[in-house]
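From the methods appendix. Each design record in this collection lists the tokenized structure first, followed by the designed amino acid sequence. Records were kept in a plain field format so they could be parsed without special tools. The example shown here is representative of the layout used throughout.

RECORD:
FOLD TOKENS (111 positions):
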């Protein structure tokens, strides 16, 4: 059963009017979805970098404060030892490490 020229023309017109534009739209849609995924991954990576940078700056800021406090404690401790006056910190804590365990002074001398 061969197709007549009228049927061939209708089939060609159908392919040109419906199938070809549909195929183009599907192709464009797939490309857009792919680009959206790439953009989402890029944004996520940028957000992660920003969060890591913020955390890093906060950690370095905290370490700077700890270093300044340790320096102040060391200076006050040296001043307290040299002139005999007490420190305003209130407590001096010394501990030893024995076999990987921190041993506070009261563990060695309960009195």
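DESIGN:
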């Amino acid at each position: 059963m061969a197709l007549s020229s009228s049927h061939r023309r209708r089939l060609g017109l159908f392919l040109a009017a419906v199938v070809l534009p549909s195929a183009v739209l599907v192709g464009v849609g797939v490309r857009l979805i792919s680009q959206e995924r790439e953009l989402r991954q890029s944004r996520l990576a940028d957000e992660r970098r920003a969060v890591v940078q913020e955390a890093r700056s906060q950690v370095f800021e905290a370490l700077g404060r700890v270093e300044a406090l340790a320096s102040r404690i060391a200076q006050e401790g040296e001043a307290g030892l040299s002139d005999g006056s007490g420190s305003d910190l209130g407590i001096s804590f010394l501990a030893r490490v024995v076999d990987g365990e921190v041993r506070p002074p009261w563990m060695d001398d309960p009195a």
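APPENDIX NOTE: Helices lie at 5-83, 105-108.
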